[in-house]
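Issue 218. Parser rejects a valid record. Input:
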Amino acid sequence: MEQKREECIKLENQLKKQSEIMKGHSLNLAQSVAQEAQANPELAQKISVLEQEVTRHREDAGKAQNEVDRLLDILREMELEKSDKDQKINELERQMKEQGKKVANLKHKEQVEKSRNAQLLEEVRKREDNINESSQQVKDSLRQKDERIEELEEALRESVQITAEREMVLAQEEAV
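Output the parser choked on:
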């Protein structure tokens, strides 16, 4: 696009120079031709042909100028489109950066949450182990108490039996 713009500017400058040169030549030529045309009819005919060529060159210059203007308009439109697209690209890049930051933030929060959950799970497991250990201690303590109760019951039975036997022996001795 830049290259096209430079070409258009060069063409426009060339057209301006040619127009100025032709205007200058036209005036000078017209004055000198008018003087000599009066002197020579053959020269008048050549002047007429040259004037037609000048007119044709002017028309060509006008057409070329119109084409340069058209190309410059196209170039301006293309530059506007490029500017719009650049703005859209910048906006999309900005949005992508924002989304990237949000994603990174969410990942960080997720990592923190996972870490916290892992800690909580570890604490729950420790408590469960402590509860199991305490439960086992309570069971052991109850088993020991049950065994002690059985021992005491057995001792009580033996004591009751011995007392009963003594009472029988005493009752027999009293009866005798």
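Fixed in the parser; the record now loads. Residues 2-175 form one domain.
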